[in-house]
Design goal:
Largest sheet: 8 strands, mixed
Number of domains: 2
Distance between the termini: 64 Å
Order of helices and strands: EEHHHEHEHEEHEHHEEE
CATH architecture of the largest domain: 3-Layer(aba) Sandwich
Structural class: alpha/beta
CATH class of the largest domain: Alpha Beta
Strand content: 15-25%
CATH topology of the largest domain: Rossmann fold
Radius of gyration: 21 Å
Helix content: 25-40%
Shape: globular
Number of strands: 10
CATH superfamily of the largest domain: Vaccinia Virus protein VP39
C-alpha cells in the first residue's frame, strides 16, 4: 500500500507505471482474474485524468464533483438519441462525455481557450466530440442543432445582457429543438463560496427563470436540485434550478 496516496497491491511486481507519487509496478494475474482488464487498460491507454475545474473540485470539495456530474446525467437522459447537440460554456468539458455517451454528435464550446485546450488534450475514443472556442458576444455558433444546453452559464451574464445572450444562443437551435438551462438559485447564494459569488451576477429564483425562458419557448418545465438529487420539490429550498424548454418561439416574446 502507498500511505496517503491510495493503494496499489504489493502483488503487482512487474510492468512499471509512472504515477505522480512514484513508479508502480504491475504484475499479472491480479488476485481476482476479473480485474486483469483494468491492468491491461492502463498499460495500453494510460490513466484518464481530471480537467482544470474538476481537478480543483476533487481536491478541495470532492462531493461537489458528484453534484456537477448529476446535472450532466440529467441532460444526457433528456437528450438521449438526439442527432446534433450543442453545449455552451463547457469549461473543462469533463462532464460532457456523459452527454456524448447518449447522443449521436456533440459540440462543446467555451469562450476561454484555456479550458478548450485542456479538454482537447484529454479527448479519448470512443467519446470524442467537437470542441470550439467561441464567444457569443461575437455572434451565434455556426450550424443548427436539435438540442442545446448551458449549465452554470446564465448566472455569469449581467441582467441587462441576458436577452441578447439568449437570443444569440438560441438562434443555433432548430425550431423543433429542446434546450436545458441550469443555474444556481438566488436563494442558494447566501451559502455560496466567495469564489462562486465573484462570478454570480445574475442568479434567479425559479419563477423568474421560468418567466425569462418563456420569452423564448412555449413550454418551460422547471426542476429543482439539491446536492445530486433533481426533483420537483419546493423551489425556494432548491440550491440549483434547471429549465427544460421546448416549442421555440420564432421571435422572442415582448418584454412585459
Amino acid at each position: 500500500m502507498i500511505p496517503g496516496n491510495g493503494g496499489v497491491g504489493q502483488q503487482l511486481d512487474t510492468g512499471a507505471l509512472s504515477l505522480p507519487w512514484g513508479t508502480v509496478t504491475l504484475a499479472e494475474p491480479t488476485r481476482e482474474i476479473q480485474y486483469k482488464i483494468l491492468v491491461e487498460e492502463v498499460k495500453a491507454k494510460g490513466f484518464e485524468r481530471l480537467g482544470l475545474m474538476t481537478s480543483e473540485s476533487w481536491r478541495n470539495d470532492p462531493k461537489h464533483l458528484v453534484f456537477s456530474l448529476a446535472r450532466y446525467k440529467f441532460v444526457a437522459q433528456m437528450f438521449a438519441d438526439r442527432e446534433k447537440v450543442l453545449e455552451i460554456g463547457c469549461g473543462d468539458a469533463f462532464g460532457t462525455r456523459i452527454v456524448r455517451q447518449r447522443v449521436k454528435s456533440l459540440t462543446a464550446a467555451d469562450f476561454d481557450p484555456l479550458f478548450i485546450n485542456d479538454a482537447a488534450a484529454r479527448l479519448s475514443p470512443p467519446w470524442t466530440f467537437d470542441l470550439l472556442v467561441h464567444d457569443l458576444r461575437n455572434g451565434a455558433v455556426p450550424g443548427r442543432y436539435d438540442a442545446l444546453y448551458a449549465l452554470d452559464v446564465l448566472e455569469h451574464i449581467p441582467p441587462e445582457d441576458e436577452l441578447d445572450f439568449l437570443e444569440t444562443l438560441l438562434s443555433s437551435l432548430d425550431v423543433n429543438g429542446a434546450a436545458i438551462i441550469g443555474m444556481p438559485s438566488l436563494e442558494s447564494q447566501q451559502y455560496a463560496s466567495e469564489q462562486s459569488r465573484i462570478g454570480h451576477v445574475n442568479c434567479k429564483s425559479a419563477p423568474d427563470l421560468k418567466s425569462l425562458m418563456e420569452k423564448f419557448f412555449y413550454n418551460v418545465f422547471m426542476f429543482s436540485m439539491n446536492d445530486e438529487m433533481i426533483h420537483t420539490g419546493f423551489h425556494k429550498m432548491a440550491h440549483y434550478l434547471i429549465a427544460l424548454c421546448s416549442g421555440r418561439r420564432l421571435a422572442a416574446k415582448a418584454v412585459e
